[in-house]
Write a structure and sequence with these properties.
Elements lengths: L14 H10 L2 H4 L4 E4 L1 H7 L3 E3 L5 E4 L8 E8 L4 E10 L5 E6 L4 E5 L5 H7 L4
Parallel strand pairs: 1-7
Antiparallel strand pairs: 1-2, 3-4, 3-7, 4-5, 5-6
Length: 127
């Protein structure tokens, strides 16, 4: 049985409760977990440390087996909490290629996709 999401939950030191909060969170809150660090030049430009990852952003993988790879974001799964990048694939035993899921905490955004006017406003809100 899936327990209800509690809006009144503040915080806990227990990892199991932190995991439960993240797992049971509704999508509008899970979207906020999809934030990732910006590159130093972007950080100075927008005066922000992190931004929400979106399709079309260029990223660099900072941790894991694909460390150092640079690519464009193909797909963002807010429900699962993963990012899928072009060219980051794993070859299965049968020879087929499958996109490899990457956690947003393990990437650095090097270039932002600025097609959306709302995103530009949200980035420049602090200035």
């Amino acid at each position: 049985m899936k327990s209800k999401f509690s809006k009144s939950w503040k915080n806990s030191k227990q990892p199991r409760k932190q995991r439960k909060y993240r797992y049971n969170a509704p999508l509008h809150i899970k979207r906020k977990f999809m934030r990732s660090h910006l590159q130093k030049e972007l950080r100075k430009k927008y005066e922000k440390r992190a931004a929400i990852v979106r399709k079309g952003d260029t990223i660099k993988i900072a941790r894991g087996q694909f460390k150092g790879k640079v690519g464009k974001v193909d797909f963002v799964s807010v429900k699962k909490g993963f990012i899928y990048v072009a060219g980051v694939e794993v070859i299965k035993k049968d020879g087929s290629k499958v996109n490899f899921p990457i956690n947003p905490s393990n990437i650095i955004i090097t270039e932002l996709n600025l097609d959306d006017k709302k995103r530009i406003k949200s980035l420049e809100r602090k200035k």
